[in-house]
Amino acid sequence: MKFLIIDSHKGSQTSIPQNLHWQNAKKIADLLGADLIWSYPTVNDNIKENYDVIIFNHASQYSYVDYLWLEKSPNAKIYHITNEYNLGEPRILWMAVKRAGRKYDVIANHPEKASKIVSKYVNNWNILNLNSIIFDPKIEYVLNSNKSGCVYYGSFRKERSIYFEKYLTKDIILSTHSKNVEKFRNAGALSDVVKRIDWAKSGIGEYRSSLYIEDTKTHTYYNYLANRFYEALNYGVTPIFANECRNTINLSGYSVPDDYIITDSLELRDKRFLNPLDEWYDMAESEKNNCLLDIVNIVSK
User: Fold this and answer.
1) Same domain, residue pair 97 and 181
2) Which domain holds residue 168?
3) By the 8 A CB rule, do 73 and 49 touch?
4) What's the pLDDT score for residue 218?
5) Are strands 35-39 and 77-82 parallel, antiparallel or unpaired?
6) What is the average pLDDT value for the chain, to the nearest integer?
7) Least-confidence region, from 23-27, 59-63, 241-245
8) Which of 51, 192, 256, 268 lies 20 to 30 A from 120 at CA?
9) SS3 breakdown of the chain: % helix, strand, coil, rounded to 5?
10) Is 150 exposed, middle or buried (0-12, 13-18, 19+ CB in 10 A)?
11) Is 67 exposed, middle or buried (0-12, 13-18, 19+ CB in 10 A)?
């Protein structure tokens, strides 16, 4: 079978993107022996045809990838891989739906009811633990014991804003883009702010622990443990969970002792020497391998 994966990441063709969605796409492409393209300026210079399967990874309304990639493979089965419930369809996939009446299958880590995707154009909705694909321990950081501080990182998400005043105190370091700082402050965050995480360098490897907060919507619609859980394991960083995440923890199947769960940031002072549990690593490796195998089986039918 001839596979094409279209990732939503925008960048150059020559540099290796640090975006985790692109990294997931690369792992899947390697397993399938698929062509992998993304939004780089020359992407449409050599449009190929007659793919059996076209897979969209993640979603963006801003992409250089031309609709002609789909038009030249009119009989290709289409899939959309997404682990963000608040994103809809990629732009050229939506064009295929509206112009040519093409339907597609979804591979997601959340239920259909939680998604912005228009379900009437979807043939099948497959739920897998896509977040686990990012699991890839960086041994030099896992074995490094010279770490300190607890970090919360990422862009501002309004679905978590009610917890920022509660947890983002001076006991937590906030790593985010400068454009997000005012939003966090307006939500009541008091944390000291540092530059956003540079995944091309040391990532979160300098920190002892990381704070795990989830969206309020995830309290109701199970979404597996988030990417940040697996990123913490990759760097030997201890995930410390907000108490509001207990339902997700229970559904995940991970054994998380109460010592790793906090009801306010002051409790971190008594948990600063906790380490990730060895059994979490074994389970994450199994989840990743099973997810990748399931993806291959689904798209190869």
Assistant:
1) no
2) 134-279
3) yes
4) 95
5) unpaired
6) 95
7) 59-63
8) 51
9) 40, 20, 45
10) buried
11) middle
